[in-house]
Design brief:
The complex is a heterodimer of chains A (about 230) and B (about 475).
Chain A lengths: L1 E5 L3 H13 L4 E5 L2 H8 L6 E5 L7 H10 L6 E5 L4 H9 L4 E4 L4 H15 L6 E4 L2 E4 L4 E4 L2 E3 L3 H12 L7 H8 L10 H14 L7 E4 L3 E4 L8
Parallel strand pairs in A: 1-2, 1-3, 3-4, 4-5
Antiparallel strand pairs in A: 6-7, 7-8, 8-9, 10-11
Chain B lengths: L5 H49 L1 E3 L7 E3 L11 E6 L4 E4 L11 H5 L9 E8 L2 E14 L8 E12 L1 H36 L1 H11 L12 H5 L4 H46 L6 H32 L11 E2 H11 L1 H6 L3 E6 L4 E2 L3 H18 L5 E9 L2 E8 L21 H7 L5 H11 L3 E7 L3 E9 L4 H4 L1
Parallel strand pairs in B: 9-11
Antiparallel strand pairs in B: 1-2, 3-4, 3-7, 5-6, 6-7, 8-10, 11-12, 12-14, 13-14
Helix pairs in contact in B: 1-3, 6-7, 7-12, 8-10, 10-12
The chains are: A alpha/beta (about 230), B alpha+beta (about 475).
């Protein structure tokens, strides 16, 4: 998952970005002003935008309005130091999905970020299940037919992304964009290795491939209900 | 003091005045009516007494006596009379004549030589009722056709009539006046309360308008009637001015509190998130060390913001102009400040040049002057290009000491200049956060010069540099003042 963090307070942005990377293992891009943030958001490769309200050049509300005017459905979590009800109402009406008042709890921020990403992909429960694969986004554990599968962080993130959109064909570029920050292009060769490792770990002795590679189009999670029938 | 109504007071005052005048009119009317009625009554008595005289006839007896011919009995039955001849013999009296009761003081003197027609009046009381009496000395000429002009007979006629009816008439007239006055009084009361009510409507509207003002809604539009009224217009405009000023200062305070809360919350958020990040997973001692140092730096920034906010509050509190007693030698203070910041300047490879002319004393607390100069110089150093120079020029301009701080740096964008003195305003937030700016430095400078009646102005050109010009009143030595 890739998160855009628009926050002008550098130390706070550093901390939140570190937490997002270290905790749920998200890729994080940072913008220090509204204009840059809005421009970055236009790429459309983010699963969540964390937006501060008081920003130089273009304030948070402006970024939000510009985003929603483009029919961008990316979930937006607002960070605000103003906790007046009026501004909260205005924000939610302008299309924000959630907000947190400063000083917030980092754990709560991470939890809310995960909820928003999940909801943004139409999933209500933190435990994802496709076929006999169960992925717990809170504990970051993966089970297949009750057996724990040990994954590297990158493999986990690839599986998490694929499981959020089961049966959809996901291009390599999309995977790269959503799993790495702005310098994703450097990782373009590595991702194939990660996918193939993931496929091997998931399949085990199963003769049917769990992740289908559609040449020139991308990857698709293919898990049958009974796991191998 | 008990609350009272102006309307009621006005009405009461007017009614009181009217009541007093009504009473006076009634009293005057009473006097006049009594006088008029009693004059008429006296004329009536005289007429009755005269007709009594007409009833005196020659008795045709040997003593040449006179008698009453009987027509005298036709008088009203309440009236009393007695007719005596010159010798005191009673010729006739009414049946209800109170014998021995009529005591006319003038009778004791008894001046026998009364002229005929002499009449005197007096009051008496008969059977508990007030009577007015007339004593008429009458002359009756018996047989005027005889030789010698007839016989002259002198008689004294007492005639009295009850004054009850006279008083009744007087009182009727007076009560007419009194009742009319009362009616006028009542009408005035009603009319006045109605008119005053109408007339005071603009005042009530003004009060209603003022009542709608609260700390959250400051809109006050005086009603047009109040504005048109000569008496209310000054009040309305005073209220308007006052509320406008209050609203502005409230708004300013509100914004400051909001901004301060924002800054502090953000600082706390930084510290909190730094600590939470550190605790998210086990780390190496080196990571903990680095993390703690970052936390300490974050705390330091928060400390700086709090300190700056307290400084600002301290400078602003007691907004009185500096007393003539506080004097600062500008050159000495400036050199001290420059020395203190020399280390900062050297670390950024910037030189500080102080060009001071004549020695001058400004009327400002030394502590505040140094605060002002430190902030300005620090700003200049932070925005200067390495290797450039910051110049401080001191000059005298009339009654003001002028301090000009010029740097050669990136300058300030023209659109940002008007907001430069706003609290927590940063021309480039991310950049000045890196340098540790709190956005309060220039706000503090402005507060200092405002406190001492000075001025501060900034001229800047992008990529050329910034000039800050401060003017502070020159301190006049006490010896010259006296």
């Amino acid at each position: 998952m890739r998160v855009l963090l628009i926050e002008d307070e550098i130390r706070l942005a550093e901390n939140v970005a570190s937490a997002l990377r270290e905790g749920p293992g998200f890729a994080v891009d940072r913008a220090e002003d509204g204009e840059t943030g809005a421009a970055l958001a236009e790429n459309g490769c983010y699963d969540l935008i964390i937006l501060d309200l008081m920003l130089p050049r273009l304030d948070g509300l402006g970024v939000l309005r510009r985003l929603r005017a483009r029919k961008d459905k990316t979930p937006v979590l607002i960070l605000t130091a103003r906790d007046e009800v009026d501004s909260t109402i205005r924000l939610l009406n302008a299309g924000a999905d959630d907000y947190l008042s400063k000083p917030f709890d980092l754990g709560e921020l991470l939890a809310r970020a995960k909820v928003l990403i999940r909801r943004g992909k139409g999933i209500a429960h933190p435990t994802l299940g496709v076929g006999d694969i169960v992925l717990n986004t809170v504990e970051q554990t993966v089970y297949r037919a009750g057996e724990t599968i040990e994954l590297s962080p990158m493999e986990y993130r690839i599986l998490e992304y694929l499981m959020h959109r089961p049966r959809a064909v996901i291009s390599k570029r999309e995977l790269l964009e959503h799993l790495y920050d702005y310098n994703w292009e450097h990782h373009s060769n590595v991702i194939e290795v990660h996918v193939s490792n993931l496929r091997r770990k998931l399949s085990g002795s199963d003769p049917v491939s769990s992740i289908e590679t559609l040449r020139g189009r991308g990857y698709r999670l293919l898990i049958s209900k009974a796991g191998g029938e | 003091m008990k609350p009272y109504s102006l309307t009621h007071r006005l009405i009461a005052t007017v009614l009181l005045i009217e009541l007093v005048s009504a009473l006076s009119v009634t009293a005057v009317a009473l006097l006049y009516e009594r006088h008029a009625h009693f004059r008429a009554f006296d004329v009536l008595l005289r007429g009755r007494a005269d007709s009594m005289l007409g009833a005196v006839q020659d008795a045709e007896d040997k003593d040449d006596n006179v008698m009453l011919d009987g027509t005298e009995t036709a008088v009203p039955k309440d009236d009393v009379y007695e007719v005596t001849d010159a010798g005191g013999r009673v010729l006739g009296r009414s049946a209800n004549w109170p014998v021995g009761q009529i005591s006319d003081s003038s009778e004791h003197v008894r001046p026998r030589s009364h002229d005929p027609g002499d009449a005197s009046y007096f009051e008496t009381s008969i059977q508990g009722r007030a009577y007015r009496m007339i004593r008429l000395h009458g002359l009756r000429i018996v047989d005027p056709g005889d030789k010698g002009g007839g016989v002259r007979r002198y008689v004294v006629i007492y005639y009295g009539s009850s004054v009850r009816r006279v008083w009744q008439a007087v009182l009727r007239a007076v009560s007419f006046y009194a009742l009319s006055s009362l009616a006028v009084l009542a009408c005035t009361g009603v009319l006045m309360s109605w008119l005053l009510n109408r007339g005071l409507a603009p005042l009530r509207e003004l009060a209603a308008g003022a009542e709608r003002v609260s700390a959250t809604s400051w809109t006050f539009v005086p009603p047009p009637e109040a504005r048109m009224s000569k008496e209310l217009a000054p009040l309305a405009s005073a209220l308007e001015t006052l509320l406008h000023g209050l609203e502005q200062s409230f708004e300013q305070q509100r914004r400051f509190v909001g901004d301060a809360a924002h800054e502090l919350k953000t600082s706390v958020a930084v510290v909190k998130s730094s600590l939470q990040l550190l605790g998210m997973k086990p780390r190496t001692p080196g990571e903990y060390q680095a993390g703690l140092e970052r936390c300490l730096a974050d705390c330091g920034r928060m400390e700086a913001i709090v300190a700056q906010m307290l400084t600002l509050a301290h400078v602003e509190e007691g907004q009185s102009a500096g007393s003539p007693a506080c004097r600062t030698d500008i050159s000495i203070a400036l050199r001290e400040v420059a020395q203190e910041l020399e280390a900062v300047a050297q670390s950024r490879e910037i030189s500080i040049e102080v060009q001071d002319g004549s020695a001058m004393a400004a009327s400002i607390e030394p502590e505040h002057f140094k605060l002002l100069c430190t902030n300005l110089l620090m700003n200049a150093l932070q925005h200067s290009l390495p290797g450039s120079a910051v110049t401080i020029r001191v000059a005298r301009a009339g009654d003001f000491a002028e301090v000009e701080v010029a740097d050669h740096g990136e300058g300030i964008a023209p659109e940002e200049l008007p907001r430069i003195f706003e609290r927590f305003f940063r021309s480039d937030p991310s950049r000045s956060r890196k340098t540790g700016g709190t956005g309060l430095g220039l706000a503090i400078c402005k507060a200092v010069v405002d406190r001492y009646g000075g001025s501060i102005a900034i001229h800047s050109k992008l990529a050329v540099g910034t000039n800050v010009l401060v003017r502070i009143p020159i301190s006049v030595p006490a010896s010259i003042l006296s």
